[in-house]
Amino acid sequence: MIPEFEIAIGHNYQLAGLSGDLTAEEVANGFTEHHEYHCLGLPSWAEAEECLEREAEVLERAASSDAPDGVEEFLDETRETDDLGYFDLMCVLQGNDVGVAGLSLALSAARTATFYSCSGGIDHRHHADHPLVGVAPDPERGALIIELAKLAGCGVDQRGGRWYLYGRSVTNLHALGRAIVEHREAFDALPAPAWVEGLAEELERADDY
């Protein structure tokens, strides 16, 4: 089975309060207090789709399991029996947790700056106690995301100019990731945030250190 968490779903946000002044350097190196910050760069929609497809395969397996956390059961089994398969999966997920990786890649392909993701869990392997993705969208992209989040059963909690998207299950966040990809044309029609220009160079510079 896939764990579900008893949390209230709310929509606490103000589009006018979203930050639109991030720089490429901040996005590349970190603009929040979260540890282990990892910039996902500028992934393509195709990369986001591939991640969501692989994620869906794992979630389908997990849903049919009798284990309390079918996702962790699948990952443990794969890690023990198929090192190469596990490594390949982690590469596609870019090191993010199953269930939030697809949304993180979709948000990045939509040109929003993600800064945190955790699938939650019923053990002590995770920082968050429920599925959570942190993102800093501009107001225009935020308006699109919030409507899709409501349809996917996801909540949003705004802190400063940042959002935490969350759900009772990773299936909600996965559904939101799929919805964002399906509406890619609406996101592509918006002007790119200022931090997009120069991000690739900043990431190269960071890798050199």
What's this model, at a glance?
With 209 residues, this protein is α+β, with helices and mostly antiparallel strands.
Largest sheet: 5 strands, mixed
- Tell me the strand order in the biggest sheet: 1-4-5-3-2
Number of strands: 5
* Quaternary structure of the protein: single chain
- How would you classify the helix and strand content by structural class? alpha+beta
Low-confidence stretches: none
- So what's the overall shape? globular
| Gap from first CA to last CA | 43 Å
Order of helices and strands: EHHHHHEEHEEHHH
Q: Please, could you describe this protein's structure?
A:
There is one protein chain. With 209 residues, this protein is α+β, with helices and mostly antiparallel strands. It is 47% helix and 11% strand. A five-stranded mixed sheet has the order 1-4-5-3-2, covered by helices on one side. A hairpin with a 2-residue loop joins strand 4 and strand 5. The longest helix has 19 residues. The chain is globular. The termini are far apart.
List keywords for this structure.
globular; single chain; 11% strand; 47% helix; 209 residues; alpha+beta; five-stranded mixed β-sheet
